[in-house]
Amino acid sequence: MFLTEILPHPYYASESYREGKKVRKRTLANLSKLPDEAVDGLKILLKGGKAIEDIEEAFNIVRSRPHGHVAAVLGTIKKIGLDSIISGENTRQRRLVLSMIAARIIAPKSKLATSRQRCPLRGEAEIGLKVGEVINKYGVAKHFKIQISPDRFSYQRNRESINEEAILDGLYVVRSSVPEETLTALINCQSL
What we know:
Low-confidence stretches: none
Radius of gyration: 36 Å
Strand content: 15-25%
Strand order of the largest sheet: 1-2-3
Number of helices: 8
Structural class: alpha+beta
Largest sheet: 3 strands, antiparallel
Order of helices and strands: EEEHHHHHHEEHH
């Protein structure tokens, strides 16, 4: 089945069939009295689409922000010539820098948070690898209790471990081949 449109307006539901070697077309219904929305919906269904009662069912709006403030910031950047100071050519890098500047003006965050906003870490494995990098770099794993979920991680300071470390802070073990009597004499001289 298909729809035939005869301009200016009438629509007909038709089907084609074979009679011997010839292809014939048969009109099944006149759809001229239907509103245009119904005819458009029928066209979508015949193409294999899905019918919905309300357009809002088809979308899930996560967040809606007015775009006027973004346009104002970008307009001001162009007006003062900051875009041409960054680069004379319209390159990808220039657009990235301008978008980061606009993002920091509109919703001030740290530089890292602004860049992370463009490509946030997702998944426990990806977050775990990044957290592991930082922990291993500074060797502070024992000082934090870390919880990782699919879209975020949280941490708490391990107060016990930090206090134990603080007690030992400033205590050094020195190994030397110098005889003990000489070292004792040196320590006594320094304390004067």
